[in-house]
Design brief:
Blueprint lengths: L5 E5 L2 H13 L4 E5 L12 E5 L7 H17 L4 E5 L12 H12 L4 E4 L7 E4 L2 E4 L2 E2 L18 H6 L6 E4 L1 H4 L3 H13 L4 E4 L4 H10 L5 E4 L7 H7 L18 E6 L4 H11 L4 E3 L2 H5 L4 H12 L5 E4 L4 H11 L1 H21 L2 E7 L1 H10 L4 E9 L2 E6 L5 E6 L8 H7 L3
Parallel strand pairs: 1-3, 1-4, 2-3, 4-11, 5-10, 5-11, 9-10, 12-14, 12-15, 13-14, 15-18
Antiparallel strand pairs: 2-16, 6-7, 7-8, 16-17, 17-18
């Protein structure tokens, strides 16, 4: 393996793909690996993203997984490290953003780091430390009903301060809009005052590029994929990278196509409803699964009769009131695990049926599907929608995967993805 410039740790699978897509757009040849690599990686990569499933585990387990990933990246002599979390700052009062950031900073000997989940291209912006989803405060958006990480406070300074032992400051937009030098000066001032983190305002991509330039010499950067927009340019300016227009090239894949969806986000529910207007779909019910009904076999038999005529959708997505009912009867973790297990078994069945182009909606679902398909690395391809690229699952018989965060994508994302599959 050649010199790795950027080593990244993502707290879920689709978040890792989102970040990797941003880096590929900047000309960095990027590989996403599922968990800590167990063997050598290709020589022709500039950045690696280690995707963990650490967003909703205990803070202690999240820290343990992240430190293991960091050690691998340090052994690979990365120039810079990036901790990626969701653009809606998905977490709880206990963590896991703060505890993981603290542990990584301590391991790297870093006393100060930025925290910027902004992703304006997907309508996530930060102003005066408040996170907005489109025109709504985070706390008033659909994220307030998230089944695992309900976000009921839009003030990121306050949210992060609940999760870390360090002081959390703010670099407000008047400084950000002045550019990289002003942002760096604000970082220095906060550092001198003893702050350990800075939430950084960003309302457009120009802000993100300026923030990216300002963190060029930071050993650790934390945030959403948006703040990584400027990082490839830093390596180019330093003479360490020649941006490659072919970074997103993937080989053509032959085979059938399908969609599986486990996300219950507002965006994904809209995408499911849009698909159902013109395409076949099959719904999984966690209550029926819990009662022992073999819905996996039913779904696969249904798909086998239709899939040669065109792509199908098998989903466990549901409206908030339906999700709450299942959680009340089964428990939050049990309800989610039932659907994840069923969809991952469905994905394996579809693969055995000849599906080689698979769209997966939902971070937890994507992680389960990738694991079930025994894919341990993804070559990152061209972007479908902001934050969602096609990828190539590296295995003996490769599979093209589009792993979509629940909140991402236009209403016609499923159709658009399959129309542009490799």
């Amino acid at each position: 393996m050649g010199q790795l410039l950027l080593g990244c740790i993502a707290d879920d699978f689709t978040g890792g793909t989102d970040l990797a897509s941003t880096l590929v757009r900047g000309g960095m040849r990027t590989l996403q690996v599922i968990g800590v690599p167990q063997g050598p990686l290709p020589d022709d990569i500039d950045a690696v993203v280690i995707a963990l499933k650490s967003r909703t585990v205990s803070p202690e387990e999240a820290v343990s997984q992240s430190l293991e990933a960091l050690q691998w990246l340090r052994d690979a002599n990365c120039q810079q490290y990036f901790f990626k979390y969701c653009s809606t700052f998905d977490s709880t009062a206990r963590g896991n953003i703060g505890p993981v950031a603290d542990a990584l900073a301590d391991a790297l000997g870093v006393s100060f780091a930025v925290a910027c989940p902004a992703f304006p291209e997907n309508k996530r912006t930060i102003y005066n430390g408040q996170l907005f989803v489109a025109e709504q405060l985070l706390s008033e958006s659909g994220m307030r009903n998230h089944p695992l990480t309900p976000m009921t406070d839009a003030n990121l300074v306050r949210v992060l301060a609940q999760q870390t032992r360090k002081s959390v400051g703010l670099v407000a937009h008047p400084a950000v809009k002045k550019g990289a030098k002003a942002i760096a000066a604000a970082f220095n001032e906060l550092t001198a005052q003893g702050y350990g983190y800075a939430i950084v305002d960003a309302i457009d991509d120009a802000d993100l590029h300026a923030i990216g330039e300002a963190v060029a010499d930071h050993k650790l950067v934390t945030g959403g994929s948006g703040v990584a927009l400027g990082l490839p340019e830093n390596f180019c300016r330093a003479g360490l990278l020649t941006a490659s227009a072919a970074a997103s090239a993937l080989p053509a894949i032959k085979g059938l196509a399908a969609v599986v969806s486990g996300s219950c986000s507002v965006a994904t529910n809209s995408q499911v409803a849009h698909w159902q207007k013109t395409h076949p779909s099959f719904s999984l019910d966690p209550l029926l699964l819990a009662n022992g009904q073999d819905q996996v076999a039913e779904a696969l038999a249904w798909a086998k009769a239709l899939i040669h005529k065109g792509p199908v959708l098998i989903y466990g997505s549901a409206q908030p009131e339906t999700v709450k009912l299942a959680q009340q009867k089964l428990g939050v973790e049990a309800a989610g695990q039932l659907v994840e297990d069923a969809l991952s078994a469905v994905a394996v069945g579809l693969y055995e049926m000849g599906v080689r182009k698979l769209v997966v909606a939902g971070g937890e679902t994507s992680g389960a599907v990738v694991k079930a398909l025994a894919v341990d690395a993804l070559r990152i391809g061209a972007m479908i929608d902001p934050g969602v690229p096609w990828t190539l699952g590296l295995r003996d018989d490769p599979v093209a995967l589009a792993l979509k965060s629940g909140n991402f994508g236009t209403v016609d994302f499923f159709e658009k993805a399959l129309a542009n599959a490799p």
